[in-house]
Design goal:
Layout lengths: L2 E5 L4 E4 L7 H4 L5 E7 L3 E3 L4 E6 L5 E5 L5 E5 L12 E3 L6 E2 L4 E5 L1 H7 L5 E5 L5 E4 L5 E3 L4 E7 L15 E6 L8 H13 L4 E5 L2 E3 L4 H6 L7 E6 L5 H13 L24 E2 L1 E4 L2 E8 L14 H25 L1 H14 L2 H12 L4 H18 L3 H20 L14 E5 L4 H5 L6 E6 L7 H9 L3 E3 L13 E5 L4 E4 L3 H24 L13 E6 L3 H9 L5 E5 L1 H4 L8 H15 L4 E4 L27 H6 L1 H13 L4 E5 L5 H18 L6 E5 L2 H5 L1 H7 L2 E4 L1 H9 L17 H16 L4 E3 L10 H7 L3 E4 L4 H9 L3 H13 L3 H9 L9
Parallel strand pairs: 21-22, 22-23, 23-24, 27-28, 27-34, 28-29, 29-30, 30-31, 31-32, 32-33, 33-34
Antiparallel strand pairs: 1-14, 2-3, 2-13, 3-11, 4-10, 5-6, 5-9, 6-7, 7-11, 8-10, 12-14, 15-18, 16-17, 16-18, 19-26, 20-24, 21-25, 25-26
Helix pairs in contact: 3-5, 6-7, 6-10, 7-12, 8-9, 9-10, 13-25, 14-16, 16-18, 18-19, 21-23, 23-26, 24-26, 26-27
Bound molecules: phosphoenolpyruvate and magnesium ion.
Phosphoenolpyruvate (PEP) binds next to strand 28 and helix 22.
Length: 830
Amino acid sequence: MTELVLRSPLAGWSSPPEEVPDEVFAKRMLGDGVAVDPVGNVLHAPCDGEVISIAASRHAIALRHANGAEILMHVGIDTVGLAGEGFELLVRKGERVHAGDPLLKFDLDLLARKAASLVTPIVVTNGDRFRVVGARVNRTVAVGDELCVLESMGAAAIETVAGGAPVVTESVVVRHAHGIHARPAAMLARHAKTLPFPLEVRARGRGADPRSAVALMSLGIRGGDELVIAGFSPAAAGAVAELARVVRELESMPVRESAAPPQPAAPRAADGSLRGVIASRGFAVGPTYHRQSAEIVVAEGGGGADAERAALSAARAGVRAKLEQRARVGGAAGEVSEAHLELLDDATLLAAAERALAAGKSAGFAWRFAARDSARALEATGDALLAERVDDLLDLERQVLIALGHDAGATQPIPRGAILLARDLKPSELIDVAPGTLAGIALAAGGPTSHVAILAGVMGIPMLVAVGDELLGIVGGTPAILNADAGTLRAAPPAEVLAAAERELVQRREARARDLAAAQRPCRLASGERIEVFANLVGTVADATLAVQQGAEGCGLLRTEFLFLDRACAPDESEQVAAYKRVADVLTGKPLVIRTLDAGGDKPIPYLPMPAEDNPALGLRGIRTSLWRPDLLETQIRALLRAGDGCRILLPMITDIAEVRSVRRVVEEQGAKLGLPAPPLGAMIETPAAALLADQLAAEVDFLSIGTNDLAQYTLAMDRGHAELAARIDGVHPAVLRLIGAVCEAAAKHRRPVAVCGGLASDPDAVPLLLGLGVTELSAVPTAIPRIKALVAAQSLSACRALAQKACALPSSEAVRALLQAPRTEEVAS
Ligand code: PEP
Ligand code: MG
């Protein structure tokens, strides 16, 4: 295997690509590599090679090493807009350079003032032929220090352009202001790779394979230039037209290169705690423990395609048997295993592995190549939910490699009661940890909706994600306090703070045991008013069973979209009926509120091709998606009608009564056809529009349910998935509270029950506030129910009302949080 060491072209701080504040680099659209935040002002050659491209605005240089590796260095972010100002070239295109030779000088101060960032990605752009291993990141580097190694993967996956005389051509004028620089080139290359014919892009007297972003950039195409797209057979006409369309669309592409929000570590709390995003609530005290899954070493060459193919197939069969066994056990681990089973036989994955096997690679090498190829494609979609499935792919890669006999690397047993710190964690790694071992988990990266986060919630392990890389600097064995209710991790606290946390832990455990013992009783306020406490479910028998054990009096929100995700087509009517009935059976006659499909926005459904949307959260989502696809709505309504007596229908993302009336018509029509009565119909209050029109909606429906996650998102105009805003998007903001109060008033006027099924109902601090605003039902995550029921039983309505009144008059969510944490002197039952 050929290896090439890349040396740092700059002095500074090295980091992984995902920390570059530009999605082109963060999502590795141009390739994998390392980024350096420079402290010096001269860019040096990272290896020997030929200068193959210099951006017209002098901010980016690409080299080609003799082994074919193409390395792009892009100085700063958004620097194309400087049009060369502050850059001085020290080499010319075509020149041969040696590692360490100076290539480019730049004005560090000017860039610091005018560019979005100084961070300089160094990426290998022909990632189909070379992969980056051993990246040395999160450290100070000097010019010439080893940054990473490029390993050759053998034959190029992209063949060279077919050549010959063009048969079909189309010319297009590039309207994008800065021409074909990094971002447009990455986008064109991504499209070109999906086209079934090799094409050529010609401009300025030269030609390039559009599947290579570097080749495109090296044409030096500027805004206003004309380029010609050529195909080499009549059948390629469609592909030519398609690529021309993409070039034309570049005009509307924003000139600013950075689209992704930067992902710095969240600021530390005043006491020095690290902050993270809450993925599973709870509190833990214990020593920290680092588990780094070592990269499994795999030989490239195989012992003959047939033997390697047979070995891969036997390893997959072994993994399949293990996954099927786990899937049969059910629960969250079973669900993850089912997702892995789907991937294990994925046609794209198998085709990629077969290509590598046919090229003489080993079974392990072929499987890794296939998994990483698909992982890159998922990441490049830019879709947060799909990108989270990358974990599943990498997890499956590891499982198959271990089944092939590769050494997974010796991992120390996890000490009991430890807080696991890791960059990321794979679902199977968590499943493999014996129950009761981990006290908590904190991840530097990760998302709160990933499979591993769902698993941690079901296993009752407190967990924070997106804490930032500072987390990884905490020495293993350091005592730490993980407060996954407040979103903080405090390492090495003073002895008295640690002792207090340990006391709190004991108190919490005792309180939890008491709460659970009392959880099966119907829930009433101390002042006597009945408050129903329901559970939010994702529709598995396991979570419904857990909810009943925890004292749920019914299900206040069954998120049916989980039934529609991670599959190739929508579930048909009978599959839906069976799924809803399974949950109803576990609830044995308790109320079951089933929400119609809440697709779109942050919950895209792969087989539901939505029109392209600039702003999906404000686009076709929730009830709008269902009304846009009446076939899906009709099938779901029929299934809900057939699911049984206790079922109620809840409609997501309602904005006015016209939407409710449209659905009611479908319910009545289908009910008449089936000879079944219409079940109660409810509207979710998730938009300010619905909250402001709640009196009209209350008159129209049988019940209201407030989705505080979305209501906060749309009221505060803060994306609920935005890592940087995560700490600020809080449903106790007075603006949201006032809307909730108005909804409760409207519901009371029309004598309709009003529930909260968003995250606020699982937040013990917020519960008295919700009750004081007039909420009559809470639907929480199953494990939070015992605490919530005990809390409700300790409140009096008058004290809750007084608290709510005060909170609504405050100016910010921080002020409301302070009020909620302050000791209360009003009448509260003991
Ligand atoms: C909400 O928005 O509060 C809600 C319950 O719906 P979801 O979180 O599924 O969007
Ligand atoms: Mg919602």
